[in-house]
Amino acid sequence: MLKKLFIFTIVMFGFGYALVPFYDKFCEVTGINNLLQPDVLTKETQVDTSRWITVELDANTRGLPWQFRPLQSSVRIHPGEPVDVMYEIRNDSDREINGQAIPSYSPRSLEKYLRKFECFCFTKQVLKPNEVRQMPVQFIIEPGIPADINTVTISYTFFELPSGAKAIKDN
Amino acid sequence: MAAVQDHGHSHGHDDHHPTGIMRWITTTNHKDIGTMYLWFSFAMFLVGGTLAMGIRAELYQPGIQILEPELFNQFTTLHGLIMVFGAIMPAFVGFANWQVPMMIGAPDMAFARMNNWSFWLLPVAATLLVVSFFVPGGAAAGGWTFYPPLSTQGGLGVDMMIFAVHILGASSIMGSINIITTILNMRAPGMTMMKMPLFVWTWLITAYLLVLVMPVLAGVVTMLLTDRHFGTSFFNAAGGGDPVLFQHIFWFFGHPEVYIMILPSFGIISEVIPAFSRKPLFGYSSMVYATASIAILSCFVWAHHMFTAGMPVTGQLFFMYATMLIAVPTGVKVFNWTATMWRGSMTFETPMLFSIGFIFLFVIGGFSGVICAIVPIDIQVQDTYYVIAHFHYVLVSGSLFAIFAGIYYWLPKWTGRMYNETLGKWHFWLSMVFFNITFFVQHFLGLAGMPRRIPDYALQFADFNMISSLGAFGFGLTQLFFLYIVINCIRSGEKAPQKPWEGATTLEWTALPTPAPYHSFETPPVVK
Ligand code: HEM
Ligand SMILES: [Cu+2]
Prior knowledge:
The structure holds two protein chains of two kinds.
Chain A: H1 2-30, E1 53-62, E2 66-70, E3 74-77, E4 83-91, E5 97-106, H2 110-113, E6 114-118, E7 125-127, E8 132-141, E9 151-160
Parallel strand pairs in A: 1-9
Antiparallel strand pairs in A: 1-3, 2-4, 4-8, 5-7, 5-9, 6-8
Chain B: H1 20-26, H2 30-58, H3 69-104, H4 112-131, H5 156-185, H6 198-229, H7 243-260, H8 263-277, H9 284-297, H10 313-341, H11 350-373, H12 375-381, H13 385-415, H14 421-447, H15 462-492, H16 507-510
Helix pairs in contact in B: 2-3, 2-4, 2-15, 3-5, 3-13, 4-5, 5-6, 6-7, 6-8, 6-9, 8-10, 8-11, 8-13, 9-10, 10-11, 11-13, 11-14, 13-14, 14-15
């Protein structure tokens, strides 16, 4: 009895850890949390030229000595139209640093309509001392986006990755 | 009635337990250990209560008067942790230690030495928690649910809290393994499962819940620890982790945990109500099944704590309906208690008063729980005082009132003396009144939008907060009065007869003298 219950305890401890990959898989399969995966362009989306949407671009760093900014603070686009924007990072320190950008969208429902094909957030970025890099983001906003949304914000925050850490997902 | 066990001096080991402090440190006797659990949890209740007084004193008026925001956060965090893990849970384990062997006719707990260890871990953990106030950076301040990122930041105090949670978890797991084995293997002949007193049943199911979810809590705090110190990124977005994942794992433990704190009180109430209604419990087997289904369901509702954390509508709907489903077996229980009282020849001694108070107020808490479970409402009230009101109705007027009921009920058996009935009634009525003054108004505060865990508030909340604080001070003082009642009973209470409660039917009353002898049921009683 003691042994059985003890083993059960250990199993449940392991179960707690097993929830981590399970959660990742669950989010991946259901598409709940795929901020860091490129989307694939399935079919030609119709461009809705009758609508304009303003996309505000925002850039932040947290805890690492980098300059990070978009080259244009906002763009005006049509839903369905492919868009290219540029961001720039510069390492102000004299050491090599790994950084990872994490996106965040506003309004929250934007996530459903945003398709990103190319983004610097899909991989970690490694900057040598004083290195500067310009990086594109390529996306469309699907025409299905509710009509009352005229302005959206795409925001990135760069975090330092512990040295030696792999990229965020192994891609 | 004659005692079943041998009362003489023929048992060698009867006389050979050490005396003084060593008796308590080395004891493996379930009654000694039960007593220590109960006193420990009372001490923690006072510590946690002192923190609560600090919180309410700060909230007495708008503005910051006595606690700096950082310290206020430490107070709310440690208040929650200490009350949950230090006061309520150990109190129930104390009851289990005293009562389970006596109620099933066993001589002691199955693993007596382990029983001693699981108790002595507690003071270590408690010391860690209390001392953490005095280390640089102070105690953990991210709430008793210690969500990251706050808990992956924070100083030494957070590490001490993590370590304390580990220790408390280990203690509960050992305690539960002990309780399960005792109940399954050590019942007296004839004590079939479906003859066990309901208190024993509820503890059996609680103990299973504990071994199910406590290791998960241990796992999640270990992840926090490695995130903090060993470069992992379970909950760190920058490293590929996800802070929301923490909430899922925490509440996978956390919701069953709230039932761990209420099921044993269902057990106590199910002993007290029949005794003072002088009728057998109505619907015994449905009580057992209801308890089991509550326990099983409680493992599938955790995300009702996370409706605003970002979840697809399908998820919200699933957890909403699953949560509401729990109200069904809970309703069965309330129905059965009421039906037990129906046409019983009731008397209203203190244990009964606390039990009836329990039913009234727990039902209010259950209702506000169902209201919180409704997604569109919860999105409004999440993290407001409405939630605070909800869970104090189920925890204070639920678990704590049941603990009081149980203490008054069994105190004669434990100490051999009666408590003072008049004082007991005073304790009940004062608790009842002050409790409601404190927490009822918090429903209004929450609905009006006052957020929890914030030391200051907008002026329109001032009146209700003042009322609530006054109630809280009254409630706090009343509990000191309870301490007096217990000490008074132990030192100068009238001698209690073997069975002071006419309607009591369980073994500890019918087959053992009062006070219960140090060793009971060395020859098992035969249950017909
Ligand atoms: C009919 C039964 C119950 C239902 C439907 C229910 C439902 C809920 C819901 C939906 C919440 C989340 C509210 C929010 O954060 O917005 C909640 C919070 C809570 N409930 Fe219950 N509940 C029930 C019974 C209980 C019981 C019996 C206990 C404990 C003895 C309990 C303890 C708690 C605690 C401690 C919290 C707050 C946790 C926190 O955020 O700090 N509940 N309940
Ligand atoms: Cu819950």
